[in-house]
Design a protein that fits this description.
This protein is an alpha/beta fold. Helix content is 38%, strand content 17%. The protein folds into 5 domains: 3-164, Tetratricopeptide repeat domain (Serine Threonine Protein Phosphatase 5, Tetratricopeptide repeat, Alpha Horseshoe), CATH 1.25.40.10; 168-264, Immunoglobulin-like; 286-511, Spore Coat Polysaccharide Biosynthesis Protein SpsA, Chain A; 547-764, Rossmann fold; 784-918, Glycogen Phosphorylase B (Rossmann fold), CATH 3.40.50.2000. The longest helix has 18 residues, at 66-83.
Length: 924
């Protein structure tokens, strides 16, 4: 590996931070090829860090070339779309200008100048003038940090300016031991200290003095946050509440801040329950309440669904909290004029809790269905919520199930489920009723996206508290805990479903406001986090989620029967085959079903066997259709019986309970076996053993059963089962004898299976067609770059690769190795200073990744007889001749095609490296 690729070991060589730092150092030296390599690794290891994405895009621009510029342009477009980042606009401008897209460059310049102050870079003005001229504009104009308009020549390119964005100051304020502390930023001019002032209740003004710049925040990675702290001594003589606002008068999050409000409430344990309410009140009229602020399209969809779903006579109250979108406010005014809603308007934005209180005042004595403006309310949900609210005297609030609802999320209980459209939400509502009927479950607190608040609970508890929770987050938790203390319970209506977009309430400072208000909840209600944690651990909604998933699963039943596949869930080549086969099954008109082990979040801490999960691999999935064998096997079989399973295809049992092997017989369906490795007779799966405890793994040579038993005794099993080789072979022989078909992907694999099971004749069905032409480039003479493809662990030749690198260093060979993918220990490989590891890649990216590495040869150091080897195919598609050991399908395929060379297994490492340096394809 060249010196300029040497990692900085002081930062943790395999970490994303180390790769990022190495990329920056390479760029600082002007070695942009090395910079791109390191930054690509950083981006693969930290795909959600936009700072890495920005640096990588800039490095691609510096490296140059059409392909790199194309990738950079796509990255810049993503950055400006998500973050409206000035550096992203500048990068996009540069890429388009280099590509000769003058109109596109001008559009990028307009995007920058419309929402960002003119950059301080002295060279910017000249570049802007060139971009404007090339785009056909008479000069350009922008807004300086001071607010003055800068016009060059005619100033045509730039306006209209988004004045609100240019002036906006974002930030958050909190109260800590009487001190007003927080931070502020000016997104339009992040390099400059923002202006922020404090105003008391009487109008007195106090300028905020800023301190140090805080580290970047995950939610706002490009926001330069300037900290401040206003001690109680500076507030002496001022009257709370205190407003903190920028020059445009817009308040930051957490403002107004009132130290008296929090201090007025003494902490009360979150677990405390007041005397339970015992009298069921008469039913009250229902009012739907929806505060709205921005995002016209989302709000319109939400309110349209409400107006279509609520029963006749239900009052719909909408609070326009000073929306910055005139079209939204105008549409609401039309609805109010038509008498379809009651509209309340805040002249200034006051935040969600205050908007709720305004709406509550408009519907006194009513039951309230509080809705966020990013929901979709299907027909049937309101009656289900209403009925649940009157099932017991002490019910205070009711919350439905949703795709994004914290502790009430379905199907995945952790949330982040895709939001359905209104039609799909309607189907989920009907299925919720079908599955769960009028069932309810107690929950610690309601969830504010859709909260039915019974009128007597509201009368006892009061409204929300904007004086404490400002713009919002946690205000419904506060309400629910106060209701709990007053003797009310909170329940989930398991037969109700409402779709929720989620994650749209706040902008850059939202995360800080959330943290601020969460700290307030913890302070006012000690033990709240533990209350929620115990609820999640107990998971009282698990049965309801499973019933709903079972209903969803059955609703998707096909008319022509189904084919059931059984496999492990470890990805790799088997996942590719499973996905392909399931698509083929669907194309035949049958339903493709799959059973895999439900790998727990902490496998090492969870006892084996794990649950078995049923899916049809369609979007959404059924994560609650998990069954523990053998106790819950009957429940699974009952569900499968309705599918008319006509065939079971057994791919792998790794991770499953052994009872999974009886599924086909229980369904009275014929069964095929597909061979992916040698788990049918080798408890170690890959035919690798250690001949002594200190020896590395080596191919065992497939001894007789006595040799297998000795290996098992010394090395144990990789199958999770405690089954000896003798018992394993006997079981497999019995299963193979009853199988309708046994499929092997290569002749080598078929021969090995037949050797161990003489009565078995596998059908050889290659996973890919090696007769398809590929264009292979011969390696260069002299120094060579060797590409190793795939996840490199012990079986795939990790130790061989390490030894090759060490030999290359000892002998100073002109060899460098690049792993396209990941390894069992990236740090150990990188520390050799001869091996670079790209990091993980997604399905479909391998060919392009291998090609980008500029390799001379591919090397597959795998030491087990692979049954197919997709990595070999990827290397060929990328144009590389390949060297491998003369073993398994990899050796068979190379010899059959002539697309490389095979080496004897066990060849001394220096000889391996000699071959990698000298091999050339035969002359034709």
């Amino acid at each position: 590996m060249p010196t300029n690729m040497r990692p900085d070991l002081t930062e943790g060589v395999a970490s994303p931070a180390a790769a990022w730092a190495n990329g920056a150092r390479a760029g600082g030296r002007g070695d942009w090829a090395a910079a791109v390599l390191w930054l690509e690794r950083a981006a693969r290891l930290a795909p959600r860090d936009p700072r890495v994405a920005l640096d990588l895009a800039n490095a691609r621009v510096a490296l140059g070339g059409a392909a790199q510029l194309g990738l950079a342009g796509a990255a810049f477009e993503g950055l400006v779309e998500r973050y409206d980042l000035a550096a992203g606009w500048l990068g996009l401008l540069t890429v388009r200008r280099l590509a000769g897209d003058h109109a596109g460059a001008a559009a990028a310049l307009r995007g920058l100048l419309g929402r960002h102050c003119v950059p301080d870079d002295p060279g910017f003005r000249d570049v802007a003038a060139l971009v404007a001229a090339d785009g056909g504009f008479d000069g350009w104009s922008g807004v300086a940090v001071s607010g003055e308009v800068v016009a060059v020549a005619g100033g045509a390119l730039g306006p209209p300016f988004d004045e609100a964005a240019l002036a906006r100051v974002e930030g958050v304020v909190m109260i800590v031991d009487g001190v007003l502390a927080g931070w502020a930023s000016r997104p339009a001019a992040p390099g400059h200290t923002p202006a922020l002032a404090l105003f008391d209740a009487a109008g007195a003004r106090l300028e905020i003095v800023f301190g140090q710049v805080l580290p970047p925040d995950e939610a706002a990675p490009f926001t330069r946050r300037h900290s401040f702290a206003v001690p109680a001594s500076r507030l002496a003589g001022l009257a709370p509440p205190f407003r903190l606002a920028g020059p445009d008068g817009q308040e930051i999050f957490g403002s107004p801040a009132d130290p008296r409000a929090e201090a007025a409430q003494k902490p009360v344990s979150a677990t405390y329950r007041g005397p339970r309410v015992k009298i069921l009140p008469p039913r009250a009229n229902l009012a739907v309440l929806m505060p709205v602020f921005r995002d016209f399209a989302v709000t319109k969809a939400a309110l349209d669904s409400v107006l279509a779903a609520v029963p006749a006579g239900v009052l719909v109250v909408v609070v326009d909290d000073a929306s910055p979108e005139p079209a939204l406010s105008a549409w609401l005014a039309v609805l109010a004029a038509e008498g379809r809603i009651v509209l309340k308007i805040h002249p200034q934005n006051r935040g969600f809790p205050a908007a709720v209180n305004t709406g509550l005042a408009a519907a006194p004595g009513c039951d309230i269905l509080l809705l966020n403006a990013d929901i979709l309310l299907p027909p049937g949900a309101v009656p289900a919520l209403t009925e649940a609210a009157y099932t017991a005297p002490d019910v205070g609030t009711v919350t439905p199930l949703s795709n994004e609802a914290s502790i009430l999320s379905v199907p995945g209980p952790a949330g982040q489920n895709p939001m359905p459209d209104l039609a799909a939400a309607g189907r989920l509502q009907m299925l919720s009723i079908q599955a769960n009927g009028g069932r309810t479950a107690e929950i610690p607190v309601g969830v504010g996206f859709c909260l039915f608040m019974r009128h007597d609970c509201l009368a006892a508890v009061g409204g929300f508290r904007p004086e404490i929770f400002a713009q919002g987050y946690g205000e419904e938790v506060d309400f629910c805990l106060r209701a709990r203390h007053a003797g009310f319970r909170h329940i989930a209506a398991l037969g109700a479903y409402v779709a929720h977009r989620g994650g749209t309430s706040f902008r850059a400072a939202g995360r800080a406001l959330n943290a601020r208000n969460a700290a307030i909840i913890s302070r006012l209600y000690p033990g709240y986090d533990g209350l929620i944690a115990r609820h999640i651990a107990a998971d009282p909604l698990r049965a309801a989620r499973r019933r709903l998933d079972a209903a969803r699963f059955s609703a998707n039943r096909g008319e022509r029967g189904a084919v059931l596949l059984i496999s492990h869930d470890h990805g790799g080549g088997i996942a590719r085959i499973i996905a392909r086969d399931m698509q083929t099954i669907r194309e035949s008109g049958r339903r493709a079903l799959l059973l895999t082990p439900a790998i727990p979040e902490k496998p090492k801490d969870t006892s084996f066997p794990w649950e078995t999960e049923l899916t049809d691999a369609q979007p959404g999935g059924y994560p609650n259709l998990r069954y523990r064998f053998p106790a819950q096997a009957a429940e699974l079989l009952e569900l499968l019986a309705g599918e008319k399973v006509e065939r079971v295809i057994f791919h792998h049992a790794l991770g499953h309970h052994p009872a999974i092997r009886g599924i086909a017989a229980a369904l009275a369906a014929p069964q095929d076996f597909v061979i992916h490795d040698f788990a049918s007779f080798c408890p170690r799966i890959t035919l690798l053993t250690r001949f002594s405890r200190t020896d590395p793994l080596r191919y065992c040579g497939e001894p007789n059963l006595a040799g297998c038993e000795a290996c098992y005794a010394a090395n144990g099993s990789e199958t999770f089962e405690r089954i000896t080789p003798t018992a394993l072979a006997a079981r497999s022989a019995s299963e193979f004898s009853r199988a309708q078909k046994i499929v092997a992907p290569s002749l080598d694999t078929a021969r090995r299976i037949t050797r161990h099971f003489p009565k078995t004749r596998p059908v050889v069905t290659p996973w890919e067609d090696d007769s398809e032409p590929v264009e292979l480039a011969p390696p260069r003479q002299g120094g060579r770059r060797i590409v190793v493809v795939g996840g490199i662990g012990p079986a795939k030749g990790f130790d061989i690769l390490m030894e090759c690198a060490r030999d290359a260093m000892r002998r100073r060979l002109k060899l460098e190795f690049f792993v396209a993918g990941v390894s069992a220990d990236d740090a150990e490989l990188l520390e050799t200073n001869r091996i670079f590891v790209t990091g993980p890649y997604k399905e479909g990216e391998a060919t392009a990744l291998i090609q980008s590495l500029g390799g001379d040869l591919a090397f597959l150091p795998s030491i087990w007889p692979e049954t197919w080897c997709f990595a070999l195919s990827e290397a060929w598609r990328a144009g590389l001749y390949t060297i491998a050991f003369d073993l398994g399908a990899q050796g068979e395929r190379i010899k059959a095609t002539g697309r490389g060379a095979v080496l004897p297994l066990g060849l001394p490492i220096p000889r391996v490296n000699d071959a990698l340096l000298s091999w050339m394809p035969p002359q034709t």
